[in-house]
Amino acid sequence: MDTLSYKTISATPATAKKEWVVVDATDQVLGRLSAKVAKLLRGKYKPSYTPNMDCGDNVIIINAEKVSLTGKKWTDRVYLRYTGYPGGQREFTPRTLLEKSYNKSVKSGKHPLYIKVVKGMLPKTKLGSKLINNLYVYNGSEHPHAAQNPKVIDINKLK
Known about the structure:
The chain contains 5 helices and 6 strands, in the order βαβαββαααββ. The strands form 2 sheets. A 4-stranded parallel sheet has the order 5-2-1-6, with helices on one face. It has helices spanning 30-42, 73-76, 94-100, 112-119, 126-131, and strands at residues 20-24, 58-62, 79-82, 89-92, 135-137, 151-152. It is an alpha/beta fold. Strand 1 (20-24), helix 1 (30-42) and strand 2 (58-62) form a beta-alpha-beta unit.
């Protein structure tokens, strides 16, 4: 047996094949959808997955406002943020973050609810900060990334 032919192949920035994919969030549960999107961003569905590299896809989520949450999580779930000052703890519910996404002050493609949820599922390192920039979320069915020729995938087919 020739052991030299069994080399572990690690992806590099030159060999990583990044694609653009579109995911429709209509009638999807937020947490389950976000877990699959985090795996897409990380590149775990690819055979060339390398843990320390950005080898994942660029993900576009459309129809973000049509996502669902089970139970009374729209109002009872609480996300916390701390400003760094005494008494600076802020509370948000998923409903308020969804309403915040309609403001003109929020950058296009950066939906506060999805950024909060997906960011919690990525590594808490420089790599995680880099990966979250590959996520683009839009409330409607239109997106400005048609020039990248994204392919539409069915998120329910992924495990």
